Amino acid sequence: MNATEYFIYLLACHLNAVEPKGEKRLDWQQIYNIAERNNLTAVIAYEIKRLPADCRPSGTIGAWFNESYENTIHSFRPNLQSLSNFINILTEERIDHALFKGVVLRNYYPFPELRVSSDMDILIRPADYVNVIEVLKKRGFVEKSIESNKATLQFEKDIFELHTELESINIQSKIYFATPFDDISDSTGCTYKLTPVYHLLYLVSHIAHHLQTGYATIKMIMDIDVLIRKFPDININEFLILSDNIKIGKTAETLLAFSKKIFNTPVVLNFTFEDEDTLPLYNDFVTAFLTGRVLGVHEENEDSAENKNALGFVKSIFDKFSKTKKQETELSYYQVQILEELGLKEAEEE
User: Each residue of 103-131: pLDDT tens digit?
Assistant: First the structure.
């Protein structure tokens, strides 16, 4: 395996609780770079500890992985305490708040303390926005930035993002996510969580946004995997109908299929990445998630070694198949569908 293949392999081992096999002559610098960009260094470091001693990175790179692992472990408990403090303050004030993304999803990972987030996302009602900010500031939170619908506050070393609405990718999703406290969440007291099917819908909507604008990460696909594993009875047909209703049905199904392909996510779908004509879209997904590019953009950044590595991984897949010149130069049917759905390509007239 090359570095990118092995990076994905280690993540799959982590999610499936499978002991990883060692590989000799790996470019661990490349693996470290990819892990850092995807905020997954601690997860990879954990899997490295399970490798045979002679297959682990040594020297400076080995020390970097160990340092990331130790720092992540040590920061977990204080981070939980900050979140608990945040929730307690809002509960004392009888202010409804919804938890979503990392603050919820990390609990579904094999080791929650290794699922790192740059911030913690909390949703409140728009009418409570100004009051919540003032209450938190009085309780030791420091305002870092404030916008019309989002504020960033810090408590000690932890960053909180306070939202008044769930991010939408289009007008249809904006309507669906407009009343999160009323019909798409479950609550315990003042604390709400999105129901599994709507959390999955939100995840794919959020990923679709990043496929449009860039900065998607493979951790977003891991989030899909752990949510589905946590709720094996989640109604995938209902999810696909909801996704289609907000005009990202094809994107949603292919994202789940991508998760199934690389992580063996336990989900049954009509679409798979097993056919040759789906490989161009698979190529696009690998590039987008490992390099953070907008979906379908392939210009190589000479300054980014991990980008080269990801593209090399894609090339190794395509080299296994013979393709005509037409296939090499034209977008596949599946690529066109997704790019049109995401507004990255104008729909062709029938």
Answer: 999 999 999 999 998 899 999 999 999 99
